Amino acid sequence: MTEKRSKAEGRMIDHLGRFLKDDSGVVSVDWIVLGFSVICLGCLTVGTARDGTFGLADSIKTSVESKSVEGADR
Fold first, then answer.
1. How far is CA 54 from CA 2, 49, 61, 62, in A?
2. What is the mean pLDDT of the chain?
3. 47-69 as b/e, with b when 16 or more CB fall inside 10 Å?
4. What parts of the sequence cross the membrane (predicted)?
5. Residue 5, C-beta contacts closer than 8 angstroms, at least 6 positions apart
6. What is the tens place of the pLDDT at every residue in 34-62?
7. Domain limits of the chain?
8. Which of 25, 27, 28, 8 lies closest to 16, judged by CA?
9. Stretch 2-29: mean pLDDT
10. For residue 42, how many C-alpha atoms fall within 13 Å in the half-sphere facing its CB?
11. How far is CA 64 from the centre of its chain?
12. Do residues 16 and 24 make contact, with C-beta atoms less than 8 angstroms apart?
């Protein structure tokens, strides 16, 4: 069963076809994805470094607290 398209429908389908074939915005999308990836990688790196830094700080704190200094009573 074939239906006749109106002029408006035909123009809309033509416009949609041109829109889907147009690749001028692809570069922008690539940069957005690349930027998002860099930001995520940075967040993961900072999170890992933060955990290691807090662990090291706790170790230093424990080590310093366990030491005694001669003459500190004065």
1. 71, 9, 10, 12
2. 85
3. eeeeeeeeeeeeeeeeeeeeeee
4. 31-49
5. 13
6. 999 999 999 999 988 988 898 899 999 99
7. 1-19+28-65
8. 8
9. 81
10. 6
11. 39
12. no
